[in-house]
């Protein structure tokens, strides 16, 4: 069996044990488990990923998720599951193609094959109950699928999952995932005690009986693999000396919110943001926190704003369509200078778009979405660890600058699971209550410091601070502005705050040499894939570096200076842009990637872009091809 | 709304007596003859009578003529966006149940663009007073049909006359699960207006008050007959609702209505023969959202301890 290891140059090491089992030792491998929705492939993948992380492997998991809860069975469009990429070192992205695939039927396997998600030479384990199914159509579909899969070098092994699982459970649909987990545990030599603990955690809301059955299925799969599979894969573990946490990005947002002293999460269900509220729903009450599920997206913003106005630390979570609905309220918070943190877990757009898939297309809407001049802060988390820490930073900025801070995440971070350094919690992160001591005579609700635009807010209940906050143009007293100069001045004061924040930011670090032929610029969840691609390109001798932007509004300082040290600068993003070679496209009318648009406007550097909206995270191998194609021809810089 | 003030939070606050002038904000800029003026006066009277500390009182409004209200009261005010006063007020009360929160909306604000919030705020039953100043028209944007505009009434958007029967806000509010206080009054009956505000303020829960109101510029004729002819009015009275005996010599149609009786309330709300003012429904036993969701606060150290405990479950 040959399995490519795209992330490393070292060839996999193969040997045979005494009993004839082939053992492949390598530093990185990718696994997929796919099934119909409701068959539990995701749970299997999550447990496998968590166990691998606990054993000391680097891990990145991605959900493969259809838009519906239970789409028709045995349909390629309904494929549901998980990809887990594990390595000896840290894993920062989902990789290119999978090396091992367990499929509960041949149709979902076909879906992955057609998406070019399976590596030639991959080990495929597929449920074989369909081969001899009583329904003639099913049997025909099996035959057709096998023909389609033939000739790609896959090492396909049929597994009697149904038959095996029925020895433990009455309904095999509810057991194959743990059987598959057993197979994977044998193939990758996972620690079974850890796996049992993880099963107990995953089914903590279910009965002891459910746990027992699942463990039986695990053992059954493990034993079956030992008896029937002749290949094992060894990814050396390197347990971290530091304490690590394993969770997905939405969980990290939830825990980050608690660590940041947030007290109210107002939300309305929307994919893929909602699971932040699921996590909070389980724990927030222990801290005195409230998850308020509002009647709609607008009310969620309104409740958060009302709470923040009265001194509570409040935030709201949403995704693109919800952000659009909140727009007017965000304008009010910016205009009346009410601190508010908004988390936008991006999905594909516009409109309902791709609800369960990753995209980075809310960037310009989050910065410029409000009518009128509405300066506020936009920052993007690039890793799951940053999902946690962004909440602390966002609260601090929102309160210091009395403004709205939008934290961008996306479906890739939301559902991706990765270990990260356990944060050492800090009392200062939780912040303090706003000052509610009596307001000294003469102090005004918008006593803007002329230089910085900063002012102290008055909280209801605070003696002497009575005023009527308004979304109308207003002066320092919060009186409605009837004189023309007032609006110019108050606009300047709100804008000034961004310049002050900008003056406190550090220039971004260049990954690789700080000058060269090509600079790839990214933002958000693409960081791992871009950096892996850049590393592979440098190993080929290319002069390429990358840079990841975290603050989008205001933009981080020093970008122009950095860009000028490279012969070519381009962004790589998951949003739509015209390809330069498309019909009618000229340099003048080309609609570019959203970050490229922003960088061009701010630096006057001719920043190019390469973007795709395939509804999946970018693959490092694809970015590598983009780098190769975009290296400037001719001599070195 | 309860009269509990949270004196423990501000023990140094001196005790002083407030008069109506202490609640005087900016000079009201409504048109002469606008019903909003008498609503403002009745409200300032109530604030003085109940001795509400201005810093402990918040008026929240949306957008429209009536939503300028907070500017004209010397207290904390929140003049937000069109239709969205109720979510903001809910947010305030979730954090500060000790504050006295009054929401002032117009008919477009409450029953049109903010209709979803009206329904849900009624169901949340957060302890606050919600006034809907109903002049049956969009005034600030210059005479467009609103949901409460009478059928056939001409406006700039429906010059041939309103096409639909007017929405009945009392009936609608009574239809919402967990409604706890539903009343109607009229701005040209100051004593009744005051008595209704007082009952609404003292009610523990979401007190919805529809105030019938003349717009002298656009809808001056709608209530003209009712203002001139007290026989068109029927007062609903009960010790558990309101009683305004001083008005009996003028308004002789007095109907004793027990506001605990929802069936009778709905029947009365549906009738169109007379304008009924008074408390249609009141039930203080209904759950209040901010109390249901109330949780004890923790110190930062406690929170860090609990958070570490929760993070342990995700530790490697």
Overview of the structural elements:
The complex is a heterodimer of chains A (637) and B (316). In chain A, α1 packs across α6 and α5 packs across α7 (208-228). With 637 residues, chain A is of the alpha/beta class. In chain A, strands 12-11-13-14-16-15-22 form a seven-stranded mixed sheet, sandwiched between helices. Chain A is built from 20 helices and 24 strands. Chain B is an alpha/beta fold and 316 residues long. Chain B is built from ten helices and eleven strands. A nine-stranded mixed sheet of chain B has the order 2-1-3-4-8-7-11-9-10, with helices on both faces. The model of chain B is unreliable at 2-12 (pLDDT under 50). Chains A and B meet through β10, α8, α10, α11 and β18 of A and β1, β2, α2, α4 and α10 of B. β18 of chain A pairs parallel with β2 (76-79) of chain B.
List its traits:
heterodimer, A: 637 residues, alpha/beta, 7-stranded mixed beta sheet, 6-stranded mixed beta sheet, 20 helices, disordered N terminus, B: 316 residues, 9-stranded mixed beta sheet, two-stranded antiparallel sheet, globular
In brief, what are we looking at here?
The complex is a heterodimer of chains A (637) and B (316). Chain A is 36% helix and 21% strand. Chain A has 637 residues and is an alpha/beta fold.
Principal-axes geometry of chain B comes out as globular
Described by strand count, sense and barrel closure, the largest sheet of chain B is: 9 strands, mixed
Interface with most residues: A-B, 69 and 58 residues
The helix tally of chain A amounts to: 20
Number of helices of chain B: 10
Q: How far is the N terminus from the C terminus of chain B?
A: 51 Å
Write down the overall mean pLDDT of chain A: 94
Helix/strand structural class of chain B: alpha/beta
Q: Give the proportion of residues in helices of chain B.
A: 25-40%
What would the principal axes of the Cα set say about the shape of chain A?
globular
Strand elements of chain B, count: 11
Helix content of chain A: 25-40%
**Low-confidence segments of chain B:** 2-12
Task: Give the overall pLDDT of chain B as a whole number.
Answer: 95
């Amino acid at each position: 069996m040959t399995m490519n290891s795209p992330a490393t140059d070292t060839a996999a090491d193969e040997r045979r044990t005494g009993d004839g089992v082939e053992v492949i030792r390598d530093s990185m491998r990718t696994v997929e488990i796919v099934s119909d929705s409701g068959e539990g492939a995701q749970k299997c993948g999550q447990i496998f990923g968590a166990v691998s992380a606990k054993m000391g492997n680097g891990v990145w998991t991605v959900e493969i998720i259809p838009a519906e809860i239970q789409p028709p069975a045995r349909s390629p469009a309904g494929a549901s599951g998980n990809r887990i990429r594990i390595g000896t070192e840290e894993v920062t992205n989902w990789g290119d193609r999978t090396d091992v695939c367990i499929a509960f039927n041949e149709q979902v396997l076909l879906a992955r094959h057609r998406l070019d998600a399976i590596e030639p030479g991959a080990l495929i384990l597929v449920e074989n109950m369909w081969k001899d199914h009583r329904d003639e159509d099913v049997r025909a579909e099996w035959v057709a699928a096998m023909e389609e899969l033939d000739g790609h070098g896959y090492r396909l092994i049929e597994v009697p999952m149904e038959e095996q699982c029925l020895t433990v459970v009455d309904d095999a649909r509810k057991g194959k995932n743990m059987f598959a987990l057993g197979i994977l545990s044998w193939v990758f030599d996972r620690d079974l005690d850890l796996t049992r603990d993880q099963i107990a955690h995953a089914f903590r809301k279910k009965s002891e009986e459910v746990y027992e059955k699942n463990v039986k299925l695990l053992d059954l799969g493990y034993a079956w693999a030992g008896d029937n599979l002749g290949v094992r894969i060894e990814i050396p573990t390197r347990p971290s000396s530091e304490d690590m946490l394993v969770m997905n990005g939405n969980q990290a947002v939830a825990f980050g919110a608690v660590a940041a002293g947030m007290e109210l999460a107002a939300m309305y269900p929307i994919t893929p943001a909602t699971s932040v509220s699921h996590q909070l729903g389980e724990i927030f009450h222990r801290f005195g926190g409230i998850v308020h599920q509002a009647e709609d997206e607008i009310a969620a913003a309104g409740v958060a704003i009302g709470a923040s106005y009265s001194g509570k630390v409040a935030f709201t979570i949403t995704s693109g369509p919800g952000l659009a609905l909140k727009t007017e309220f965000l304008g009010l918070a910016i205009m009346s200078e009410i601190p508010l943190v908004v988390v936008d877990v991006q999905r594909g757009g516009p409109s309902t778009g791709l609800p369960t898939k990753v995209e980075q297309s809310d960037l310009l809407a989050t910065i410029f979405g409000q009518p009128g001049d509405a300066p506020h802060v936009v920052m993007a988390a690039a890793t799951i660890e940053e999902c946690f820490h962004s909440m602390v930073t966002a609260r601090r900025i929102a309160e210091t600058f009395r403004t709205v801070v939008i934290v961008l995440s996306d479906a890739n971070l939301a559902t991706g699971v990765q270990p990260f350094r356990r944060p050492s919690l800090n009392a200062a992160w939780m912040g303090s209550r706003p000052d509610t001591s009596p307001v000294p005579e003469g102090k005004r609700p918008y006593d803007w410091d002329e230089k910085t635009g900063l002012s102290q807010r008055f909280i209801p209940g605070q003696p002497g601070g009575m005023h009527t906050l308004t979304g109308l143009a207003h002066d320092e007293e919060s009186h409605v502005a009837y004189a023309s100069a007032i609006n110019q001045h108050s606009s300047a004061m709100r804008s000034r705050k961004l310049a002050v924040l900008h003056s406190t930011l550090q220039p971004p670090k260049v990954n690789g040499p700080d000058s060269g032929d090509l600079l790839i610029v990214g933002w958000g969840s693409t960081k791992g894939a871009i950096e892996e691609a850049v590393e592979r390109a440098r190993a080929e001798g290319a002069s390429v570096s990358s840079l990841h932007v975290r603050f989008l509004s205001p933009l981080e300082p020093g970008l122009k200076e950095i860009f000028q040290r490279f012969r070519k600068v381009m962004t790589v993003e998951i949003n739509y842009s015209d390809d330069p070679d498309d019909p009618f496209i000229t340099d003048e009318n080309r609609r570019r990637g959203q970050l490229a648009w922003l960088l061009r406007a701010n630096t006057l550097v001719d920043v190019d872009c390469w973007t795709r909206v395939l509804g999946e995270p970018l693959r490092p191998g694809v970015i590598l091809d983009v780098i190769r194609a975009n290296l400037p021809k001719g001599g070195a810089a | 709304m309860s009269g509990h003030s949270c004196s423990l939070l501000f023990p140094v606050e001196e005790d002083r007596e407030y008069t109506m002038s202490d609640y005087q904000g900016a000079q009201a800029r409504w048109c002469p003859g606008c019903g909003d003026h008498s609503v403002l006066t009745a409200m300032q009277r109530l604030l003085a009578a109940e001795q509400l500390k201005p810093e402990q009182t918040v008026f929240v409004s949306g957008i429209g003529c009536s939503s300028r209200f907070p500017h004209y009261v010397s207290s904390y005010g929140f003049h937000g966006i069109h239709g969205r006063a109720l979510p903001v007020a809910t947010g305030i009360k979730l954090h500060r149940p000790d504050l006295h929160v009054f929401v002032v909306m117009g008919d477009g604000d409450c029953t049109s663009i903010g209709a979803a919030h009206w329904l849900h705020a009624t169901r949340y039953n957060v302890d606050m007073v919600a006034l809907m100043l109903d002049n049956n028209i969009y005034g600030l944007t210059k005479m467009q049909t609103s949901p409460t505009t009478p059928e056939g009434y001409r406006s700039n958007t429906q010059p041939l006359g309103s096409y639909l029967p007017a929405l009945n806000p009392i009936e609608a509010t009574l239809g919402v699960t967990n409604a706890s206080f539903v009343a109607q009054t009229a701005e040209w009956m100051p004593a009744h207006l005051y008595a209704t505000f007082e009952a609404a303020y003292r009610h523990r829960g979401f007190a919805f008050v529809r105030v019938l109101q003349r717009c002298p510029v656009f809808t001056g004729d709608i209530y003209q007959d009712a203002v001139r002819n007290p026989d068109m009015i029927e007062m609903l009275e009960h010790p558990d609702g309101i009683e305004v005996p001083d008005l009996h010599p003028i308004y002789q149609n007095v109907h004793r209505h027990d506001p605990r009786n929802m069936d009778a309330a709905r029947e009365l709300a549906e009738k169109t023969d007379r304008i009924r003012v008074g408390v249609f429904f009141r039930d203080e036993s209904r759950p209040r959202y901010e109390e249901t969701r109330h949780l004890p606060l923790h110190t930062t150290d406690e929170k860090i301890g609990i958070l570490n405990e929760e993070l342990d479950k995700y530790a490697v």
